[in-house]
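Technical annex, item 7. During the second reporting period the consortium partners agreed on a shared format for inverse folding records so that results from different sites could be compared directly. Each record opens with the tokenized structure and is followed by the designed sequence. A conforming record, contributed by the partner at site C, is shown below for reference.
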């Protein structure tokens, strides 16, 4: 994508588990399609979050995040 000077955006849906790890990561929108999907998922697999809590107990929490892929100046 870089050599072709392509920029884009990928929206991911996933669940933050009780340990703060993203699980069940999937692409729900990508522009351009199928260009940055794999890299977006790889990045999300490295993320860590504070888990959601209900009555003080950690719970699985569904969420979405959008990643923007831009060329540096």
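Designed sequence (site C submission):
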């Amino acid at each position: 994508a870089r050599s072709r000077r392509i920029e884009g955006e990928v929206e991911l849906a996933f669940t933050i588990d009780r340990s703060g790890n993203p699980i069940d990561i999937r692409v729900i929108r990508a522009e351009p399609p199928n260009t940055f999907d794999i890299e977006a998922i790889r990045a999300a697999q490295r993320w860590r979050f504070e888990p959601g809590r209900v009555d003080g107990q950690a719970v699985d929490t569904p969420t979405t995040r959008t990643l923007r892929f831009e060329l540096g100046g």
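Residues 37-46 form the longest helix (10 residues). The domain at 8-69 is CATH 3.30.1150.10 (Fusion Protein Consisting Of Minor Coat Protein, Glycine Rich Linker, Tola, And A His Tag; Chain: A; Domain 2). All partners now use this format for quarterly exchanges.
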